[in-house]
Design a protein that fits this description.
This protein has 153 residues and is mainly alpha-helical. 65% of the residues lie in helices and 0% in strands. Helix 2 crosses helix 3.
Length: 153
Amino acid sequence: MKTKSEILDSMFRDLVSIGKIKTQQDLALAIGRDKTNVSSAFNGNERYLNEKLFSRINNSFGGIFSQSWIETGDGILLKKDRPNSHNPKNITDDFENQEIPTNYNLTSLQTKITYMERLIKQMEKNIELLERENETLKNDYRGAGTVKSADAS
């Protein structure tokens, strides 16, 4: 029988390996928990390292983990219908394609919405930066073309 810390570590490593998350912070955002609480769980703090955490992780990622494995650490970690590990998705895909269980915690759902709003704002900033860089490159190209034609005459 595996320890709770070993079970959490295995769940985390598997989620990273299939491209669902990259960091403990990603995990915290996905499950609607503060990153310090998740970090405390990874450090073995029993207050945070509990069945509720495992259930929240499993529910947040579409129930991909076997419940019997979560309870004991024995047997098969992932259900047979797990996402294709050869086609990894990023954390935003989880929100797009995830079915919301009827027993979903509203606080967790609000946290996910807030996270997605922040992600959208960051993407908008990235788009703005790329558009500015594109304009700069266009202007540099036009300037280079002008210099070439002046040299040609």
